[in-house]
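agent> Task received from the user: take the single chain below, predict its 3D structure, and emit structure tokens. No templates, no multimer pairing.
agent> Plan: (1) validate residues, (2) run structure prediction, (3) serialize to tokens, (4) report one or two observations.
agent> Step 1 OK, no nonstandard residues flagged.
tool_call: predict_structure(input=
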Amino acid sequence: QVQLVESGGGLVQAGGSLRLSCTASGRIPDIYAVGWFRQAPGKEREFVGALIWFSSTTYYADSLKGRFAISKDNAGNTVYLQMNSLKPEETAVYYCAAHLYKSKEDPLSESHYDYWGQGTQVTVSS
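)
tool_result: status=success, residues=126
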């Protein structure tokens, strides 16, 4: 099993920045990717971005490229989501998730993720 703990959420003004952390524990060698997702009130959960664990290759939702960045602390087991120029409509619960190695990997697909953190609230005020 893999356990994930997010932190770093909070209240920020529009145009501001926030950095979320996701710390993994457990069967780390089984992790293929860590993804970030978000769910706004009344909306479905959506893909934000993902990082391939062994290479740190990153993927992002098209609408977020240039404003959001995912990185990994190679000295530990923490993945970060740096969010810049935040907008009020990006108020949501942000989740990180672990995609384990399997016969076919797809870091952009929510259904391929096996373990989820508890989520952290991000509120962007106008």
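agent> Step 4: summary for the user.
The chain has no helices and eleven strands.
agent> Done.
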